[in-house]
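Batch job 17 of 40 flagged for manual review because the log was empty.
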Amino acid sequence: MQPLQLFDLAFRQNEWLAQRQSVISQNVANANTPGYKAKDVESFEEAMRKSVPMAVTNPDHFSPSGDGTVQARDNDPYQAEVLVSGNDVSLEQEFLKSNDVMRSYSTNTQILKTFANMLQTVTKG
């Protein structure tokens, strides 16, 4: 079993955040498109659960399933009001999601900076 490296995890999260931001921007761009249904990607935790191989130490344990790809999926129809045109994009929700992505990028960057500083301190002696 390979150890889960911090930099690899940060890279994967940044890839996921980029995909999520792309889906959010598509939703905003299609806010006035008749019949457009807002989409979102699965959570980062769910994507990681699918992509990180788990070691089965006991045959009675559950085994992971899925191919580990992140797919865009339709939003819950109860989250946004569906307009007469059939469009269910809520700009407020999309901007909140975008803010969440920005906050996650910032947190990820701060963790990596702190870890890099710790490594520099250790290696300097």
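Reviewer: the log was empty due to a logging misconfiguration, but the result itself is present. Residues 91-124 form the longest helix (34 residues). Unflagging and moving on to job 18.
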